[in-house]
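Researcher: Go.
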Amino acid sequence: MKFNYIITIHNKEWMLERVLSGILSCEPGDRTIYAVLDGCSDNSEAVVDKVAQDYAKAKIVKVKTPDVHELLSINAGLKTANQDGEGFNIILQDDVVLADKQLELKIAKLYEQMGPKLGYVSLRMGANLIEDAANDTSPIPLKDFVENAYGHGIGKEPLYPGQFSFRDVPIKSPVCIPFKLIREIGMLDARLAPYAHDDTDYAIRCLIAGYRNGVYAIKFFSDVKWGGTRLSAHPEIGRIQKRNIKYIREWHRAYLESKKASPVTDHITIVPYKAEEALEAKAAWAKAQQALIEEEKKHTGIVSTAKKLLGNILGKTN
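Model: Structure:
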């Protein structure tokens, strides 16, 4: 089975080797890494070159974009990558360190077990569309959030490594898009650039085509403090979220008006996790939730930290 890893990179030289090494530490397989260098002004490209030299057998392809932000960077990587045959695109940002050596085996097993109509999958978190999403005025018309235990601590009961749960809208990153979806559904809609709700739109396009989406937990690390290396603090996220969800309601109105609420089903165990893996994941989840609680104490009466974090994730850029 073939795997493409699309990494969107913006000035992250200080941790980029860890990100690349996380991928290369997976058990040997047929993989190609597409390092999308998006307007980098630091030594990120030199780090990619060094890793390519150190791992001589690794297939690493550099893709350069002129500071176009996440959505168009992802599309540049997907367009460069070979999408023929059977395989999967793993899309991740430059602040995600994969930590599961059997990731590719587990992804292949997930899609084999869940059947040919499994579509877009997040390895981080996901949610269902709210009822009457076509006419609702919320900038984030989502509910029933579920998150990987290695996420940011949002929600109640997380998914532990090896568990899967159906959700309408997977949220990156990392996320998995099979090659066949790129051929059938296409890439992310460039009209939503530079970011925000591209996951929502792509998920709905998959649902319209008859696929089901979801969230599958694997071990990775991604500290909130690792993100945000662009010079601007992205004050436009809120405005762009509202603009993009307005577009989505216009484009997919007929589907959204007819869609019934998706049920929240029990988590499905694809790969049984070991006791020590569960303990480690539970500890990571507890630590993330405690960090949220501490942040809440600092911002009581303003906006909840979880909501702010969720808004940033949905509009997240490098």
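Model: The longest strand covers residues 30-38.
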